[in-house]
Amino acid sequence: MDKPLTVLRVSLYHPTQGPAVFANIPPQLQHDISPLLVGRGQDAHLRLQLPTLSRRHLSLEPYREKGSSLLVFCLKALSRRGCVWVNGLTLRFLEQVPLGAVNRVSFSGIQMVVHVEGGMSLEAFVCCFHLSPLPLIYRPQAEETDEWESIPQEQPPPGSGQQAPGHLGFLHDPSQTRDSPPQPSPGGGTEIQLQREPPDGMLC
Fold first, then answer.
1. Which domains does the chain have, with CATH numbers?
2. What is d(CA 5, CA 117) in angstroms, rounded to the nearest whole number?
3. Contacting residues for 97 by C-beta, under 8 A, at least 6 apart
4. Which of 1, 19, 45, 95 has its CA 20 to 30 A from that of 192?
């Protein structure tokens, strides 16, 4: 009996909802365990028609942790021109972060939510795509552009309960509200660490 494949359920939103943006998105895509490239280039597995995107903007990279029989994933930023926001973290060129069960991603005005449903196969995975008519991610006092880094990040007064303008708030998740403080990890600090690899050539 074939082992079940890991499934990534990917919801996509862009404010223009223009048909050209998502014209090349299939309902379903099966992929081997090589990195799945997202961008506007001809070699991108997930092609999005936006001039602000790099040819290779980001990648979803499956791997197996030592002692585990399941595929897990990380997301790597491949663009020199713009940042990628993943679960509230900013990734720059060649930085990467591991993905959890539910992941909120934003880049070049595109909002993407990735749900990971684990399977036993280590040879391939499946992406199922859904185009959302409504925003997936809520960002107070910020526009969906790659110029957010130029917006001053004012820190709120201590004890005010207000969050800085650059904070990510998410729709459709009652467990997270604008006034809820971040939950510390058991060992203190944050559990997710950014990783940077040495440049291996121009990717944009």
1. 6-136+189-196 (2.60.200.20)
2. 9
3. 74, 75, 86, 87, 89, 91, 192, 193, 194, 195
4. 45
CA distance 137 to 14: 11
Determine the Cα–Cα distance for residues 108 and 55; give it in Å rounded to an integer: 13
What torsion, rounded to 10 degrees, do the Cα atoms 90, 92, 96, 100 define? 20
| Claim: this prediction has a pTM higher than 0.85 | no
Strands (E), 14-107: 28-32, 36-39, 46-47, 58-64, 71-77, 84-86, 89-91, 95-98, 102-107
25, amino acid identity: I
